[in-house]
Amino acid sequence: MASASVFQDEFCCSICLDLLTDPVTVTCGHSFCLKCITGCWDQADHKGVYSCPQCRETFTPRPVIRRSTLLADVVKKLKKTDLLTDATTPCYAGPDDVECDFCTGSKHKAIKSCLTCLVSYCEVHIQPHYEVPRLSKHKLVNASSQLQEKICLQHDKIIEVFCRTDQKLICMLCSMDDHNGHKTVSAIAERTEKQKELLEMKRDNQMQIQQKEKEVEEVKGALKSLQASAQKADEDTEKIFTELISFMKKKRSEAKESIRAQEKAEMGRAEGLLEQLELEIAKLKNRDAEMEQLQPIEDPVDFLQRFQPHLTSSPVAKNLPKVTFETKFSFREVMKSVSPSLEEKTKEFHQAILKVTGFMKGDTVKLRSVRRPYSRYRYNQNTEAKESIRAQEIEVSRVRQKQLELKIAKLSNSIQLSGVGEVTGKTLLDLHSFSSHAEVLM
């Protein structure tokens, strides 16, 4: 190896100290990488004098350099030899690797384990199992560090039988001794059955994942509907209270706060349900990943030993209660607080009209509180149902005059009282106050 290193040094560039790349030879006979000598001489262009980096011989003008074909072929072959040497270098076992039981000193990494010999072999020591006829019949599996767990502690024999009566792995002597008369099969046969069971469990687990994901989408859809419904309720509330006179602004704010509180409460409930579903999905996916790792195991004993915990583990409940989600937005309580104020303000407004209209003495103007449906929304998952809430409406007896000009001194704001939606009663009173005038439109 030392002579090979010295031989390799003869073909190193004295500038980059690496194997020559695109080797060229200058006038003095020394060889360099084309890139290295070109860069070196480019820096000397301002002097006009060029020198060999190795022997310091100077040249004027700048010499013409030519590629050395023979030297390039030699370096190419030398690099191939190095790659071949590196490829045949033994691979030693790391902290997480299975060591070869036949190696002495530094252990090489084992690539196969023999279930007959109960020994792990590296690339070199496994060769007899491929070449010797009797050894070629041995059962080889991927290198495993748990070979001793495949030995029966009672009889010191290979575990290769599965007792279906006791649901445990045993050796041949156990089947004739403690398990005599029990229903037993080979570990390979039991693995085949358990593999089918594993596939069924995996299929069922996948169905549960899909069901949970579907429920997640339903909850997310309900959340979107809830948000849209809350926004719609907010817009309707804004429209209603915008059309009312200034004294209702405070009530509008209270109504919006009520909606927000209800929305927040239902959002909290829905998000809690969503978090629970996502947690269950995560558990199912973790279990699925464990089963995915178990499936490709070829060693039946190893497979069955790892399979047993999955039989005792408790999966996520398959039949959880169906997700139900219903949210109600109601203005009933809001309107209970709004109605008295509306009725009181309406009476005040009527009294102001009577004070400034002397020609209405002969006309009976009667105000009474009647029921009138406004839109109220009851939200469920489909956000389809609508109910009505009660509000206040002004019904007056028919006033024969088509248009009356009223001076309202106490009401300086522009006010409009108008019905929105279904009308109950004979006639609505629309009052429009522009500056100091009001119009009664029948």
TrEMBL record:
Domain of life from the UniProt record: Eukaryota
One Gene Ontology term of the molecular function aspect: zinc ion binding
Domain B box-type: 147-187
Coiled coil: 189-236, 260-294
Ranges for domain RING-type: 13-56
Protein name listed in UniProt: E3 ubiquitin/ISG15 ligase TRIM25-like isoform X1
PANTHER family: B-BOX DOMAIN CONTAINING, E3 UBIQUITIN_ISG15 LIGASE TRIM25-RELATED
Keyword annotations of the record: Coiled coil, Metal-binding, Zinc, Zinc-finger
Species of origin: Clupea harengus (Atlantic herring)
InterPro entries, alphabetized: E3_ubiq-ligase_TRIM/RNF, TRIM8/14/16/25/29/45/65_CC, Znf_B-box, Znf_RING, Znf_RING_CS
Lineage, top ranks: Eukaryota, Metazoa, Chordata, Craniata, Vertebrata
Underlying gene: LOC122129809
Pfam families tied to this protein: TRIM_CC, zf-B_box, zf-C3HC4_4
